[in-house]
Structure formats: structure tokens, C-alpha cells
Amino acid sequence: MLSELFDHAMSLPPDSDPDVHAEAWEAVLTHPGFASLPVPERWSALAALGTCRLQRHQRDGRLEDLASALACLENALRLPSVPRAQRALASFNLFHARDQRYALTGEPDDLLTAMQTLWALVDEPVPGTSARGMCRTICGRIDAHAGELTDPLRGLRRAALERLLTDPTDPDLPSYQLCLASQLASTYEGSPAAHRALVVRAMELTADAERRLPEGEERHAASVLLAGLRNLHSWAEENAPAERAPGPPGRMDIEEFSDGLRDLPDHGARLARIREALATNTYETTGTGWILLNVLLAEEVLSPRTNGKIDTEEAITALRTVLGLPETDGLGVTLELKVNLGIAYDRRLKGDAAANAAEALAIFEQCASEVTPDHPRYPAVVCALAQALLDEADISGRRDGIERAIALCRGALDSMPADAEPALRANLLNTVVRLLPLRTTGDPEHNSEEAIRAAHEALDLLDPATEAVRRGDVHHNLARLYRDRLSEGREANLWRAIEHFRASLAAQPKDEMPVDWAMSQSSLGVVYSMMRGRDVEATQRMAIQAFMAAQSVFTLEDNPQSWATAEFNLGVAFGDSEVRARPDLERAITHLTSALQVFTEEAAPWQWAITQSFLGVMRTQTGTPEQLLAAADHFRAALRVLTFENHPRDWTSVQLNLAQLEPPEDLAVHRRMIRGLVGRGHRNEAFKAYMIYLRHLGDRGDWPAAAEAGARAAELHESLYQEALLRQSRHMEQQAAARDVLEIVTAMVRAGRTLDAVLLLERTRARELGESLQQDQDVLRSARDGDRVAFDAYRAACDRLTALAGVERSMPGAGFGAADVERLHLSLVRSISKARREQAAALARLTAAAEALRPPGIGELSAAAPPHRPLVYVYGAAGFVRLLLVRRDGEGGLDVDSRAVDLRDLPAGPDHSPPVYARLTAALAAWLRELGVGAVTLVACGALAGRPLHAFLHDGRCLLDEFTVSYAPSAAVLARRPAARPGPAVLAAVGDPTDDLHYASAEAGAVGALFPWCRRTVRYGAAATAPVFVREDVPGATHVHLACHGSFDTASPLESAFVLAAGTRMTLRAIMSGRAFRGVRLVFASACRTATTDAFLPDEAIGLASGLLQAGAREVIASLWNVNDLATMLVATRFYRELDSGPPGGGAVDAGRALRRAQLWLRDSTAAELSRWCAGLIDDVPEEPARSRLRAAVAHLDGRPPELPCYADARFWAAFVHLGG
């Protein structure tokens, strides 16, 4: 089979549509046996598919095609023993793909990767280009880059220019010479002598270019450049330092000695030389030379580039020794030495951290008192003082000095002259960046945005070439701001945080700045631990890996604070109940307890309190009485330190956790918490507070107040959902609040607000499906508004969001944390954010569309619940199953009623125990009888979603015995479905495409014969490939029948698929992304588990059947579990006979009733009756192998006892359900 797929792909004409080529090669790559193919075949498939995907990206701009092209081509080039010419061509395509990625991201790393790929091809045989053309491309791309140029990019540009100089006949040679000369003149390589040599070379190149150029502007420019280079060379010669080695120890010239130290590149070697000089020199101990040697020693001790603590004892001793000496005062360096002494205490590794911080603060306070704003050292002193105030706040947990520190920095910034050193201004800004989030006054969101602006300004001021380390520090602080940012959506900010932490890690590598690298790793781990969505297990693994990477550097002895922070983070990660199915609570408690070795109430009160709080959280999860008592003790201990005034968010979190263990009598505490959280923008915590408040009110029987609290909580949940940009993040918001929403619904019902309860259920069910269908309607309505420009903008934004949703579905799931994947995610988030803003801006001008975009309301309920067919919501909560029945009355209004099924007297057991369903269906049947209706549409919520409620027995009967039962994801989905395709019935069907379903071909053949089709297309076996069926058959059909295998992927529902011929698959992702099924009246998904939905988010109805509805089908018949082949054929064929016997067109009620009749017929028919049915079909079916399969069915049934109802068991007849209502 695989060989046939490969031969088919190879045989396609070169000029065929790239999509056809891509589909053929996709079938090869996705075949299970692909990995066993020989290398040449794997190479052909990977290279061809990568090229096709690249071409489609260049044509359509779809990100998922670019990601696929990159993956295919990179994997192809990893294969061994590929001919040189083929490898070169694939590498050239990979260059184009990487170049396209750079065009999307604008990142210098992406530009470098693309240009390195092209540079590697300079000497390779690539058709259609040349070595010189590649070099010109490299130079052009690098010159056009809008951002900072890294050293590797400069090196590539220089190498390409050098290559271009090798042809003396090239008419553009002078231009290349001048470009290279300019670059060489601005390059400094290691020493003054090396720099002078580069200037000489630049002069030679410029002189030759001037000689070659004719008279004109270019030659004049060369002459000007040459004159400038000569001046530069003269200045370098005049100011060249004497080439001197350090003199021998003893009495020496200090300036000479200092200059000699610069030739020692190693920090340790410089320290050793200074110590040797101090030990052997003959200066007097109070002399100028001896003082300056001590100053050099202190400066060298403090020189390591790190924000972490270091051993500064030598510096403190040296500075304290020389400070106060008359000779020191005479040198005019006292202020500078005091500042360095403060820095030494601030960075001191030994001693008590609080005592060191206090000493540093005292020294900087003294320094600040000795300078005025016009003093040249004033900005540096203020910056040091502000940082000391910040450190004191971090250690003590008090925020008293923050406002003063901010005011000092702002004053220094305002007083700085325009020509002040950019790095100094950047340092002040970076200090402000760290201070603003700690303010206890002002709007937190405003403070955060101001800090972000200051951080970006600091980055703009710092030269990437000379200030990489400081830029890394700013990137680190900016990442923390995005991590905690409240506006513009959580995942967008988290991806930005990851981007900046990665930049910080690159600027401060582990081998050069291990402590800073580890601090960024630890902070990066926090970001990963905050991410939610379907990849949450992967992101949590990344978090733990980052924390452990930090611990590979931190030690309890050398980095106690940082070590304890990483221990704390590991404890939180291992015990995160929202992430891990089974949190490792023992390991979590061990790590948190370890952190308390450093975080004491006296030395680090805030960290101690937070660690106590999380220990309480972990012990609460154990559930044992003694652990719950211990948890309460932890929470009370934390509240000894935390106050609402100083730490409102942390205080509230602890109060909420304690309230769940010990409900407070005074509910004013809750109201205060909620007001504070809402006022500060902490909506997630406010939602949790509202839910605890609702439960306490419910316990007191105050249901009106509980319902109102629930309504407020629902509003907060809605804002969190709307703010989430990525589909997986929206799913996580829904999953996290699913149980809470049902509690709110119950409170509303108990308070008599049944319509509000139904509307809330509607708003939280099948949102993606309903919104997708709604968008199509909105676009049509918007066109009637008359503002064509706004309509086009809105339609373009909607199309863009639809395309981006497809991009997200195709984003790589493996390799999470890889730089390429993270950059693609960030690019996706930015694109979604931009498209949403454009959509909102256009929508504001389209009143009809804005009205249609309201949440599901009475209109949708009315459309979905006619008088003869009520809509019933079913959900379980706290010992009850509740039924909410909605139907339109005779006057066009809505009746909403509720009933509760009490389950509390039933024996304990799983939710799906038969007595539960018996009582539920009995109550529902009795209610429907009272109403006198014969049909019902069920919306099953929560754990009841996906249960065969139509088939559970009560009093020896089931619902299907009395009523036509349909299911719907929500009323909104029913109301927003597109119109059915007009015209006579047209069938598109597949039968047994994999040649292993014995009766599937008979089923498809019989379906084609049983209904009066205007036209029918039935594909059997190898002819039924997914690409052909979707492209050629489905678009013109009114009815689609799929008699094939179906697979539901519980781990990745979007990979669920209908399996067709030649290994091709019609995946849920492809179904939802395409438009082939739009307007199809009915899809009969006669395959296994096609009605199964995602257990992670059952209320979102993510499955093959719902995917067909989202793709535009009006009605779907699908299966809840794996179905018997022959039983399926019998139900399907009988269904079409019953459908034909009703009104024409296959309307909603007709399809539901036809399925009910077919299922009851199968349940009640004897083997003899079923045999006669199959025999009757043989004459109607013209094709083989369908006829032979029907004869086999007759023989099988004739072998059973003739009076036996052989399919009476529910597992045979009850699997199929009607979706559509």
C-alpha cells in the first residue's frame, strides 16, 4: 500500500497543482510505514512536501504551511548519503523558508539562520543562481535589516563582501569595496594595533574604488570617505598607546601598571597581579600609589558581570582601609570609593542579607547627602540609592521607600543634560522599571504600562555591541513585567515574557554569568508554569526543567536566596493541581520546606509567608483531617505577615484558601476581598472569591444573593475567556470554570432566575462551534449595513482569524520550548491580537453585525425550541440531576421551567451507575408526557455529555420508546447553522475504503439505492481517498454517507479522523478548517465513535460530529462507541427507507424520527425478519462487492435462531444519535 502511494506521488506531472502534489506526498509521510522506507524514498517525500508547502505559503501566506515546510526540509537534510546536487537544491529551498520566517518575525537570529543557510551554498551547484548572486543577497538582506546587527551578521556580511571582491572585472566592484571599507573602519578587533590595520585596509580599498569610479557623485563620496579614513588613521597613530608590559613589582608608575593590566584578559590573572603588587611594592602604606593599588583591587573584585552575590570581602577591606585617609581626600575620589563600598555591601555574599542591605543603604544615603543635582556623579549615586531602597523592600517586604526611590530616579532623569551618557540614563530607567510594579499607590495597570515603556526606552539607549550584558538585565526585567501584565491577554504577555527571558539568557550565558543565567532560567520556569491549555503538561515539564537548570548553579551556601526561590518554585510546580493529574504532594512539600531554611519570618518575611501559604495549599490537597488542620495553621501564619494594604493579592489568596477550611461568620470579609481584587484588576482571583462567597450564601439559604454573586462571577469568567487569544487558552478557561458555572446555574435556578440560568448555560457551551457559525451569519448581515469599506475590513479580519485558528491547530505539539516553535507561537499571538483589534474596529461601524454578535439570547432559544419539540438542558450538581426545559409558547414567548431529580438516597457509586440514569430518564419521560410532546432535543452538560440518555431503561422502557430524541451542542448552534443546500437530493458516499469492513460496501451500495437521489456518487475501496472525496464529491452533495473506519484521539481530539483509502485521513482539523461540508443537509457518519467528544472539555463538544456541524452541515447522525459492522449496516439502510417514507427533503424532525424508527426496528426485529430485509436489498443494489456482502449478511442471519431478536442489546442499536434538533 505504501509503495502504491509513493508511486502515485512520483507519477504526478511536474506542472500539476501544488496542492495535489502536497496531498499525495502527505499521504506517504503520514503512512505508518514511512520510517521504514529507504533513505532515497524518504528524501524524495520530505523534500517534495517541504517544497510544496513552501510554495503554498508564498501563495497564501499561511503560517502552518511555513512551519510544515521548515520541518520537512530540515528533516530531509538530516538524512545521510544524499547526492550533493539534490542536497543543495533542498538547502536552497530551506533558505527561502527561513527567509520567509525572518520576514514574519523580524528577529536577527532568524535572519542569521537564513543567511548562514545561503552562505553554506556559495560553492554548491544550485540551478538558477550563482555564488555572486548569493553573496549579493546576503549583503542586501543584512543591510535592509531594521534592527540591531549582531556580530555574526556583521561577520557574514564581511565574508560575502570579501567574496564579491574576487572578480576584478565586476562593474559593481567599487561599490563592494566602499561597503567593506566602511564596515572595516567601524570594526574594533582586540587591540589598537589590529584596529589600525583594519583602517589601513579600508583606506586601500577606498583608494582603489576612487581610482576605478568615473567622475560623478559616487567618486566624490569615495573621496570624502577616503579623507575621513586618513584622518582616522592619523588620530589612531597619534593616540596609540605604547606597547608596554606590566613593570616588575616594586615602586612603579601606577598609570603604567593600570595600562598593563588591560593586556591580561582573565579576571583571576588581574587580581593576582594586583595582589602581588600590593604585597611587594615599596610605597608607604599611606602613599598615593598604595591607595590607588587598593582602589584597583576593589574595582577588580567588583568587576564580574553579574547581578548575583559575589565574594566582596577584599573590596570592603581595601575600601575601608583607604577611606578617611587625608591622601585619599586629596585625590578627589572619596565619593566614588564610598559608592563602590556601598556596591560591595549590596553584592556581598557573606553575612546576613538584611544587614548587608542596611549597610549599603546607609552608605548610599550618605553619598546622596554629599551631592547636588548638578554634580556629575549625581545620577549614578541616585541610581545606587534607589536600588538599595528596592533591595531593602525585597528583603523586608515593606514598601515604604518605593515612592521615594521612584521620585529620586525621575528627578535624576529630568536633571540629566541632553548629551548625558546613554548607558547612565538607561540604568536609571531600568531601576524605575523594577520599582514601578512595587508601588502601593496608583493604578497597577498604569504602573505596569509605564514600566514597560521605560524598559523599551532603556533597550533603545543601550548599544547591542557594547552593552549586551546590561541589555540582558533589561530584557530580564521586561520579561517579568510581561509575565505579570494584566492587559492585552495573558498568553500574549506570557509569550512576550518568554521572548525576553530568552534574550536575557543569550546575553548572559551560563559560562560567563552563571548566576544571572540561572536567575533568568528560574524566572522562565515561572512563565512556563503559568501557561495553560492543552499543552499544559509540556509547559509544566519545561518549567521544572528550567527550575532544575537554575539549581545546577545555585547552592545553599553561595546563593541562599536564589536557591530557596528555585526550591519554592519546584515545590509549587510539583504540587500544581491544575496541571498534574496526580500532583506529587510529598515532593512539593519537601521542596517548600527546604526553602524555609532561608526564608525565615525575621530575615525574609514576605517569602516566608508565601511559602507558608503554599504549604497550606499542598496539605489541603491531601484531604486528611490532620493535614487540613496543619494547612489552616500555615494560612494563619502567613496572615501574620501579609496585609491587604501591602500585599492585597497575596493576602486575598490566603484568605480565600483559609475560608474554604474555616468559613468566616462575617461575610463582609469576602465583600472586602472582592472589591479590592476587582478594583486592582485581578479578575481570576476575584472570580474565585465570588465562588467562595456564593457557596457561603448558599449554605445560609440566601439564594437571591448567591445568584447575584454567581452572575458577577460569570461576568468575570466571560472577560477572562474573551481576553484569551489562543484557542487552547480559551479551552483552559472553560475547563477551569466548568464546575463553577454549574454551581452558578443551580444558584440561579434556586433563586427563580431560570431564564438567566439557561442563558448562562448557553453562553458556556459549544462556544467555538457557535461562534464559528455565527460569524458566517454576521458577515451576511453586515453586507446590508451599507458601509462597504467597513464590511470589507470586517470580512478580512474574520477570514484572517479563521485562517489563524487553522494555524493554531497545526502548530507543532512536540519539541515545546524550541526557539523556532516559541517564535511561531509569539508571531501567532501577535497576529491574532492584531486581527481582533481590526475586527473590533470594523465591527464598531457595522451596527447589524454588532447586534448579531451579542451572546446567545432569547432569539436563539426560541428558534431551537418549538412548542412541539422542547429543548432540555441536563446537568448534575451536588446530589441532584437538574432539568431545565425550554419551549416556545403559542404566543411566541418562552417558557422556562426546572425540575430536580434527587439522587441523594441512592447508594454511592460512579456517576454513570444505572440507578442514576433510570431515575433521571423516568423523571424526564414523565415531564414530557405531561406536556404532551413527542420529541425532545437534549443538551447534556458536564459529565452527562456523551451519555446515551435516549437508551437508559426506566420501568422496562427507554425514552426512545415514547419520544424522538435528538441532541444538540447548544441552542445557539442550532439557530446559527447555515441554510441547507437547495435543490434535489444528491448523495456522496464511501463504502469500505480500507477493505476490512465486511458490510460497509453493502451499506453504501444500499444507501445509494434506497433513496430517490437526483444524483449519487458512491466510492468503494481504493477509489475512496480523502483528497478526491472532499474535493470532488462533497461540495455538490446534499447528503454525505461515510461507511468507513472512524478514530477518536483522546489525547489530541483534532487528530480524530475518518480513515479512507490509501492511508488518507479526513481529520477533524481538516473538516473544521474547510468549507466542503457547508450547507450539506445531512451527514450520516457510519463509523466508530464519531459522536464521542473531548473528555478534557465535554461542554465544548469537540468531536467529529460537532466538527461536521462547524464545517456547515445541518444535521449529523453519529455513533457514541465502536459499533458492530452488520448492525450498523442494518440501522443505516433502514434509516434511509424511513427517511424516504416521510416528507421530502430530510428535515430535522424527519431525520430524528427516521433514526428512532430504525433503531427500534433493529432492537425488536428477529433474525428471520432481518434476513428478509437484507435479501430484499440485493435486487436494488447494482454494484459488486455490495451485492456479495448482502448475500453474506443473509447467510449470517439465517444461521441464527429465526425468532431471536439478535440485536436487542443496546450496544447494537443505541450507539447512533441524531445531532441537529
Strand order of the largest sheet: 7-6-8-12-13-14
Give the termini distance in whole angstroms: 41 Å
Please identify the structural class as seen in this structure.
alpha/beta
Q: What's the pLDDT, averaged over the residues?
A: 83
The share of residues in helices is 55-70%
Helical run tally: 53
| Poorly predicted sequence stretches spanning 5 or more consecutive residues | 244-251, 777-784, 813-817, 1145-1149
Describe the main β-sheet briefly. 6 strands, mixed
CATH topology of the domain at 978-1219: Rossmann fold
Multimerization state: single chain
Judging from the principal axes of the Cα atoms, what is the shape?
A: globular
The appropriate CATH architecture of the domain at 978-1219 is 3-Layer(aba) Sandwich
Give the total of beta strands.
14
Percentage of residues in DSSP E strands: 5-15%
| CATH class descriptor name of the domain at 978-1219 | Alpha Beta
* Cα gyration radius (Å): 37 Å
Describe the protein in words:
Among the domains are: 2-238, Serine Threonine Protein Phosphatase 5, Tetratricopeptide repeat; 264-347, no CATH class; 769-852; 870-973, Nucleotidyltransferase, domain 5, CATH 3.30.420; 978-1219, Rossmann fold, CATH 3.40.50. 61% of the residues lie in helices and 6% in strands. Residues 244-251, 777-784, 813-817 and 1145-1149 have low confidence and may be disordered. Helix 22 packs antiparallel against helix 23 (468-484). The strands form 3 sheets. The protein has a 6-stranded mixed beta sheet, sandwiched between helices. By secondary structure, it is an alpha/beta fold. The protein is globular. The two termini are 41 Å apart. The chain contains 53 helices and 14 strands.
